[in-house]
Specification:
heterodimer; A: 276 residues; two-stranded antiparallel sheet; two-stranded antiparallel ribbon; globular; B: mainly alpha; 64% helix
């Protein structure tokens, strides 16, 4: 038995080393985006209303030219835990959109948007979308949860405890402003754009944001970096609209469970004291 | 071993019922007076936790099914509608998705506990085999549930897994077409998966009843691995086991809640937030974590048919465990050599799980083959031989002696 203990330890050490080694090798394939500070990170995280409003402005003026966001309705803009529009404001936003519909006689018409309408797509169909850049621009409803990067071992284990959940937003914020001149060794296909953070580096989307492109009313810096962060926060809200409620209720549930566990523990101790 | 039927209802209506259907006596003898070994540790609380998780999955699942649409054009949207528009739909969905992970986490601990303490040995072979059947049903149910989301990973997981059957010589291709209900994974596939995903949990519940019944016939094993000999060795299920199970269940729920409320993205694959597109294959097709070791076994073998055979054998072999392990001593406490091999088995399992996430190339293939070899060697070589060659430690005379001896 004592001879086997070192063997056991050796196997464990080799396994751990083997796990760590490829993790670092993998990082060369996709550059990990820098960690950002997000208001919605951590156990007490909340969306920043002003940031979501700015992000929506960018979505509307820039992204929406190519990207749909069809899971969201205009009414969502006034939902609690969102950008904090009043119902009247959300209705005003909706009315600026043209929605394809039928009149009572079945004739196709275009009418002003209403709260219950979903955000209309910029293209008539997927083929039309594809024709623009060669690939259809992805729908933005779930994009912040659909994009990520590999954390690798052992970081992903720590993430469980530190609650690092913002791989998607970190990636998107880095990607939006991650355009560079392609290195000489890199053969960029025609129509492609070199992006440092995009897996494979060749992305169809041209650089979307330039300094001063969108006017902010709240005095926030009108830089591409700030735009990138704001629209990313907005996309996170679009993908996970109930995050605020989730974390708030989660804290209450945690308190309840921990107190209950404590009570159960002392009850158990009392009951078992008779037989120990 | 079921408890003494001392149940005498005082209420006259209950007396009337008891004469006609002794259900009160059944509940009383199995949940209250049922004698449990007094030396059970917390690893024995996972049976109760698993029953709880099955309940959570069925209840959340039934409500989710009220809002879900099993159609290729609407499935993804209806899941998103649950996440956005259904009151507390996000909570139901995350509970259900992480419920599956917690269910598997608990079942792996439960199975490894059974292996460590030799709970599958005579007279508990049928109890163990029923457990293996439950595990198989869980794997099928979990897989089909994952497909229902109808994201990219759902579709490609369904394609990869159903394609395994195409390896069967002769009938393979027609069999896969029959499974799909078409010439590719499509709407008929989604519909039958939905139907079976709703059905199988109730089949699991049925086998769980048999599992608990078999348990109550043989009684529980315990860390000492010896049978109770007198009343001094056991305590009644209530309050002793109920309060202990209850406490640990709440601790388990804290971990569950941590995932659901704080890190719900931790185990969900991002690609599954992209609607199905049969024209685009994801960069890597990775199953849920609880299938990863078996996925690694499958890919470690270069021949597809042999790989599929290895995959199914790796699960099927569990059913033969009671006869592959030739040792008369149950508990690893008294089996010093077995204990080492057991932990190596756990490492091999975790190692295979990690390799399941890696592309099958280079060093990964070699490691996967080593671990796969050890996985099978553990059952087919180590366990049969250990029973013959291992020098076990002396067993305590009784459970109460083992408890008091540990204290002294």
């Amino acid at each position: 038995m004592n001879i086997q203990r070192p063997i056991f330890a050796l196997v464990l050490a080799v396994s751990l080393a083997a796990m760590a080694w490829p993790a670092s090798a993998q990082l060369t394939e996709q550059i990990p985006p820098p960690r950002q500070k997000w208001s919605f990170a951590g156990p007490f995280g909340k969306y920043d209303e002003a940031q979501l409003q700015r992000g929506f402005k960018i979505y509307r003026e820039v992204c929406a030219n190519c990207h749909s966001m069809e899971m969201l309705s205009f009414r969502n803009l006034a939902d609690p835990g969102g950008p904090g529009f009043s119902e009247a404001q959300a209705e005003a936003v909706a009315s600026e959109y043209k929605i394809k519909d039928l009149d009572d006689l079945g004739n196709p018409i275009e009418r002003a948007g209403r709260l219950a309408d979903h955000f209309p797509s910029p293209f008539a169909n997927e083929l039309a979308a594809k024709a623009t850049y060669g690939v259809a621009p992805p729908d933005m409803s779930t994009l912040a949860k659909a994009r990520s990067y590999s954390r690798g071992f052992p970081l992903f284990v720590f993430d469980m405890v530190t609650q690092y959940q913002e791989q998607g937003p970190d990636y998107i914020a880095a990607y939006i402003n991650g355009y560079k001149d392609a290195p000489n060794s890199f053969v960029l296909p025609e129509g492609g754009n070199y992006n440092e953070y995009f897996p494979g580096h060749n992305t169809a989307m041209p650089p979307p944001l330039q300094d001063g492109q969108v006017t902010y009313d709240d005095g926030s810096p009108q830089t591409a970096q700030q735009y990138g962060k704001d629209v990313t926060a907005f996309l996170m809200w679009a993908a996970e609209p109930h995050l605020d409620a989730r974390k708030r209720i989660g804290f209450q549930v945690m308190i309840f469970l921990i107190v209950l566990a404590g009570l159960m523990y002392f009850t158990k101790k009392k009951v078992w004291s008779a037989v120990h | 071993m079921s408890g003494h039927s001392t149940y005498q209802p005082t209420n006259r209506a209950l007396q009337w019922l008891e004469k006609r259907l002794p259900i009160g006596g059944l509940v009383h003898s199995s949940l209250i007076t049922y004698p449990t070994p007094r030396n059970l540790n917390y690893w024995w609380t996972f049976g109760g936790i698993l029953s709880f998780m099955l309940g959570v999955q069925i209840i959340t699942g039934i409500v989710l099914a009220m809002h879900y649409t099993p159609h290729v054009d609407f499935a993804f949207r209806s899941v998103e509608a649950i996440m956005r528009d259904v009151n507390f739909g996000w909570l139901l969905r995350y509970l259900h998705a992480y419920g599956a992970s917690m269910f598997f986490l608990a079942v792996y601990i439960h199975m490894l506990r059974g292996m460590y303490y030799g709970s599958y040995k005579e007279p508990r072979e049928v109890l163990w085999i029923l457990g293996v059947i439950i595990y198989l049903l869980m794997m099928a149910t979990g897989f089909m549930g994952y497909v229902l989301v109808w994201g990219q990973m759902s579709f490609w997981a369904a394609t990869v897994i159903t394609n395994l059957f195409s390896a069967i010589p002769g009938v393979g291709e027609p069999l896969v077409t029959w499974l799909w209900g078409g010439y590719a994974v499509g709407n008929p596939t989604l519909n039958r998966f939905y139907s079976l995903h709703y059905l199988l949990p109730f089949a699991i519940a049925g086998v769980v009843v048999l599992h608990v019944w078999a348990l109550h016939v043989t009684g529980q094993n315990n860390p000492a691995g010896i049978e109770p000999k007198s009343d001094k060795d056991t305590v009644p299920f209530t309050p002793y086991a109920t309060v202990k199970d209850g406490f640990f269940l709440v601790c388990f729920c804290i971990v569950f809640a941590w995932f659901v409320f704080y890190i719900p993205g931790y185990l969900l694959n991002g690609d599954n937030y992209i609607p199905v597109n049969p024209a685009v294959t994801p960069a890597e097709i990775v199953p849920e974590w609880y299938y990863l070791p078996f996925y690694a076994i499958l890919r470690s073998i270069p021949n597809k048919l042999l790989g599929v055979i290895a995959l199914f054998s790796s699960i099927g072999i569990l059913a033969f465990l009671p006869w592959l392990d030739t040792s008369k001593v149950r508990s690893a406490r008294y089996r010093p050599v077995f204990r080492q091999f057991f932990w190596l088995f756990v490492i091999a399992g975790i190692g295979l799980g990690w390799l399941g996430t890696k592309p099958p190339e280079g060093i990964y293939v070699i490691l996967a083959r080593i671990f796969t070899f050890y996985y099978f060697a553990f059952f087919l070589i180590v366990l049969p031989l250990l029973g013959i060659f291992e020098k076990t430690k002396p067993l305590p005379n009784s459970i109460s002696e083992s408890v008091l001896g540990a204290k002294a």
